[in-house]
Amino acid sequence: MRLNFKPSKPFTIGIELEIQLIDRDSFELSESSKIVFSHASKKLKKLLHPELLTSMIEIVTPISESPEEAVSYIKNALKEIDLIGQDYGFRSAALGTHVFAKKETIHITAKDRYLKLLEEFQILLKQFLIYGLHIHIGFPEKEIAIKAYNTVLNYLPLFLALSTSSPFFFGEFTGLNSYRTKIFEQLPRAGIPEYFDSYSEFEDLYFKLKNNGFIHSIKDIWWDIRIHPDFGTIELRVCDANPDMERIEFITTLFQGLCLYSISMDKERYFHQILKQNKWNATRYSLDGRFLQKEGTVKIRNKIADIIKDLKRKGIFKELGTEKRMEKISGILEKMSISQIMIKEYKKNKNIKDIERFGFIE
Fold first, then answer.
1. Nearest to 135 by CA among 114, 152, 117
2. For 89-196, where are the alpha helices, taking DSSP H only?
3. DSSP secondary structure code for residue 161 in this structure
4. Any idea what DSSP says for residue 220?
5. Which domain covers residue 175, as residue numbers?
6. pLDDT, tens digit, for every residue of 11-22?
7. Which residue, 82, 233, 275, 326, has fewest beta-carbon neighbours within 10 Å?
8. 16-60 pLDDT tens trace
9. pTM of this prediction?
10. How many CB atoms lie within 10 A of CB 344?
11. Count of structural domains within the chain
């Protein structure tokens, strides 16, 4: 039994952004996904997927040649969604969690898959007021994809730190920068996965889960980095949803560059406890967390800067055609993450409901 890996055009891109629909005045969640689907243009409908919650929609881009192109699809979709919302009193927002909504006020989309998940995960799924950013990179061959997967696995905390946007949950300041991460980790097939020596080893694990009835497809595996054979991609799933389109482009450009660079990089594996510690450091402290490597620790922000220097020196961005664009958006690394901005504002004004506005996508 084999799990066919369908080759993709090398290093092409797809982005998936889960967004909140919220009331324009109260910032409460608005169960308006049906309104969006019923009023969307044909062009927009091709980009929209229903999601777990009725106050939630996923925007999925077509296969794109560059990060900038993929982000442009997201921007255009958001503009139309917000135009629809003007007539119905809602707008879009993109944060890893809703700041103050309670689980009693949400409703799960009545699709068989979601209802089955609810039956399996019970109270865990009832508190899934979380939203992510997923990025696919295409690969022409499965073993190259496995090598990139293993490489990116080491650096997941860097992407998380860049995206953190969920320091509040159920109306409380959690003290973390990404509480979404901790909620997701409660599921049995989520969080940091393991390394694979080959694609066949990944296949063996997949079929052990599938043949024993624990999963039905790759969609039931929610690792922070996932091999997606149906698309011929590896998928970065560790990131919080984010309202900053330039930041999303920066994250995508870095991920794409690291995937290409992985082909020539030496194999390096960390202890699983080190992977967990580094992810915690990003979850707790965002870009100011420490990254533990063989030489000791370095601030996550500085580790990202070091990797970008390596990619530039090796001509990776130039080969991908993203060099000039990366120069224009590299200032993102000097800024606070969205979560850090939210926390700073909260400590200043203590108005927790108003913090939701930081998810607005301008």
1. 152
2. 112-121, 123-126, 142-154, 156-163, 179-184
3. H
4. G
5. 110-236+243-356
6. 999 999 999 999
7. 82
8. 999 999 999 999 999 999 999 999 999 999 999 988 788 999 999
9. 0.96
10. 11
11. 1
Phi, psi of 205 (to 5 degrees): -65, -45
In the numeric block, the tokens 């992985």 are attached to 262
Determine the residue type at 298.
V
Q: How confident is the model over 257-272, as pLDDT tens digits? A: 999 999 998 889 999 9
Residue 141 lies in a domain: yes
Count of beta carbons in the 10 Å neighbourhood of residue 102: 13
Angstrom distances, CA of residue 301 to CA of 35, 151, 191, 290, 336: 41, 19, 22, 9, 10
β-strands 48-50, 56-60: how paired?
antiparallel
Q: Is residue 70 part of a domain?
A: no
Q: How far is Cα 60 from Cα 15, in angstroms, rounded to an integer? A: 6
Is residue 178 within 8 A of residue 131, CB to CB? The reply is: no
Asked whether the beta carbons of 358 and 95 are under 8 A apart, the reply is yes
Residues 6 or more apart from 16 whose CB is under 8 A from it? Answer: 49, 58, 59, 60, 61, 132, 133, 134, 135, 136
| CA nearest to 20, candidates 97, 108, 76 | 97
Partner residues linked to 360 by β-bridges: 93
- Sequence letter at residue 148: A
Considering the domain boundaries, does residue 29 fall inside one? no
Q: Which two tokens stand for residue 244?
A: 């900053």
φ/ψ of residue 248, rounded to 5: -60, -40
Q: How far is CA 334 from the centre of its chain?
A: 21
Q: Which candidate, 255, 251, 247, places its Cα nearest to that of 361?
A: 247
Dist. CA 145–CA 155, nearest whole Å: 16
94 DSSP 8-state letter: -
Is residue 114 a part of any domain in this protein?
yes
- Greatest CA separation for the chain: 59
